[in-house]
Amino acid sequence: MYNKTSATLMLQTIMVLMDKQNSTGVTFPGSYSDDAELERCYGVYGCFSKAYPWTEHRPDNYFPVSPEAMAVRYPAFTRRNRKIPVLFEADNKEKIANANLDPRGPFYFISHGFLEGGHKLWIQNLADALLNLQGNEAATVVVVDWRGGSQPPYGQAVANIRLIGVMTAHLIHNIYETLGLQHIDNFHFIGHSLGAHLGGYCGHALQKRFYLKLGRITGLDPAAPYFTKTVTLVRLDRSDAKYVDIIHSNAMPLYFSGFGISEPIGHVDFYPNGGSTQPGCTQANSPNGGSNDLSYQQVVKYVGCNHERSYEFFTESVAPTCPFMAVQCDSYEAFVAGNCTRCDNHHYCIPMGYHSFNIYNRLQVGGLVDTNSNIALYALTGGTKPFCRVHYEVKVKVANTTASITHGPESGKLSITLIDRNNNKSEHMYLEDEQKFYKPGVLETKLVAVKDTGHPPVFVIIEWKYETNLFNPMTWRLLKSPSIYVEYIKLSSIEYNTDITVCPKRNKPVVANMPTIMKPKYCKFRK
Asked: Which InterPro entries match (predicted)?
């Protein structure tokens, strides 16, 4: 059976092979074994060093491949030309002048990562979402297609994005000059994996060479290998644009099938589901359902699911089905424990993804945030599209009545279904993945996320699932029916800022496999 351990070993093997061979047929000119050569120049794009800090935390070090060898392309799309783009070049003002771009903008630049190209479906989906957004009639989307430089070995691709970042800065400067713009505040660079750091290099070059500062850079799970624990010059950081937001979706070591950086590097860093593994990225969801016959591409898809989820989150966030809210908290563990369920000056709430800048800007204008510091936020999502969920702090009080004490402790799983004023139901959701031991009088707190029905709940359906374990006497029920005496459930909504307390009718127990309706009006029977 193909399991996570073998997937991890396969991932490491893939990375080793990618560092040892070039399977694309692209020829990289020149020899890189000459340690005496520490700098190489590329005409108007300047010179690139191989000295410190470019040697830090890197097993190898390359010069970028020449622009001619990489053949970087910049297809540009607007609402008028969605299918057939205008192809820009980094230093060709004539093509920009003839493209009939709307100077009002906004202008988006989207970059892929290692082993990819600008033709990928996710880039098309994101470009369409941005162009379809209400108010974006004048928008231009430019794809940074550097597939000629994104091929193995990985260390070479890492070096290439330094040059491509500078080339992209030249293109942005040329658009700025050709259109006679006053600033580039509405220029937004969106990069995935290595493409995120490419955006950082672009932003740095714009400041150093042209005294312009990008309005925004969004890093979608910025790559970790060769960038973790490096100085800010080497990686994307918050100084590269006026606003830098990061979505971490695969922030764990490479030997645990991780690709993304874990460090908070933006003004705002989002860690959905903890930022390391994402719901839905399991063996059951691998391309062939977990059979032994896995191709290279299937393995890459399987282990890359968490890494790719960052751009899926961001694309959905452009026109989300719910607020996509994330909450500031000390840690993910504190967040899921229900310690950060109120939006206040101690726990800022900012929507994850595209619309995050609007809220951050309000906080900044109000003097509530320091742009030199970082805000780390957490959210829960679903495992399938749409990923957006709304959050509830759920407090379950087990009754301490005579009947509950006489019945004794119970081991099982509680599930809830939320019903709103229009009788719309949320999904059936367990509060715990495994059976939990509940004592009379105990108060349990859990943070849950459910699909948004459009309104907060007005009552709840609760169910009790009980499973006997031969080796656990606490689960034995010979003379008593499997049930639990729930005194009340209190649900506090982060998104709706509402509270509701529901109780069982006449203090009756919740019997196994029998759905029980709990409503606020039943709480008058509480003793």
From this structure: AB_hydrolase_fold, Lipase, Lipase_LIPH, Lipase_N, Lipase_panc, TAG_lipase
Superfamily name with CATH number, domain 4-379: Alpha/Beta hydrolase fold, catalytic domain (3.40.50.1820)
What are the binding residues for Ca(2+)? Answer: 235, 237, 240
C-alpha to C-alpha distance for 440 and 305, rounded to whole angstroms: 42
pLDDT at 13 over 90: no
Q: What residues contact residue 81 under an 8 Å CB cut-off, 6+ apart?
A: none
CA distance 212 to 232: 19
What is the set of active-site residues? 193, 221, 307
| Per-residue model confidence as pLDDT tens digits over 40-57 | 999 999 999 999 999 988
Distance from C-alpha of 469 to C-alpha of 410, rounded to nearest angstrom: 12
User: Which residue positions form the known binding site?
Assistant: 235, 237, 240
pLDDT single digits (tens) 204-246: 999 999 999 999 999 999 999 999 999 999 999 999 999 999 9
Distance CA 26, CA 36 (A): 25
Fold of 390-525: Lipoxygenase-1 (2.60.60)
pLDDT interval class at 30 (50, 70, 90): very low
CB 113, CB 197: distance < 8 Å: no
Q: Which residues contact 439 (CB under 8 A, 6 or more apart)?
A: 398, 409
Neighbours of 126 (CB within 10 A): 25
210 CB-near residues (< 8 Å, 6+ apart): 169, 173, 176
Burial 75-91 (b: 16+ CB within 10 A, else e): bbbbeeeeeebbebbbe
Residues 6+ away with beta carbon under 8 Å from 363: 348, 369
DSSP 190-249: EEETHHHHHHHHHHHHHHHHH----SEEEEES-B-TTTTT--TTTS--GGGSSEEEEE-S
Residues 6+ apart with CB under 8 A from 16: none
User: What mean pLDDT value characterizes the chain?
Assistant: 88
Q: Which amino acid is at 512?
A: A
Distance CA 153, CA 20 (A): 6
Domain parsing of the chain, residue ranges: 4-379, 390-525
Question: Is it the case that residue 5 has pLDDT exceeding 70?
Answer: no
User: Residue 377: which of 324, 453, 303 has the closest Cα?
Assistant: 324
